[in-house]
């Protein structure tokens, strides 16, 4: 029986707003089984030092987003009127 293997795929920088670039890990050319609507992005505290993630209105068309916040805090406002603050859970 074949054992599963781990592969470390390199991310690439993607500008998502005028002042914000994220390191995108998925989708990736070498992992085509992951669909085009599944994104794994990493953004660091460099967002806090500027105007934030000022992203233009865009449709989510029923998609759900998940953010794993490791530290700090985030405030999300969107063009649909959602307005929510979040911070990481403490054990």
TrEMBL record:
Domain of life where this protein originates: Bacteria
Pfam families, sorted: Pirin
Gene3D superfamilies on file: Jelly Rolls (2.60.120.10)
InterPro entries registered for this protein in UniProt: Pirin, Pirin_N_dom, RmlC-like_jellyroll, RmlC_Cupin_sf
Residues of the Pirin N-terminal domain: 21-85
Similarity annotation: Belongs to the pirin family.
Protein known as: Pirin N-terminal domain-containing protein
Native organism taxonomy: Bacteria, Bacillati, Actinomycetota, Actinomycetes, Kineosporiales
């Amino acid at each position: 029986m074949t054992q599963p293997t781990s592969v470390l795929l390199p991310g690439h920088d993607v500008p998502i707003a005028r002042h914000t670039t994220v390191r995108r890990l998925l989708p990736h050319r070498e992992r085509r089984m992951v669909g085009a609507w599944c994104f794994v992005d990493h953004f660091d505290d460099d967002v806090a030092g500027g105007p934030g993630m000022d992203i233009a209105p865009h449709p989510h068309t029923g998609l759900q987003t998940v953010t794993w916040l490791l530290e700090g805090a985030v405030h999300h406002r969107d063009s649909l009127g959602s307005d929510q603050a979040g911070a990481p859970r403490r054990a």
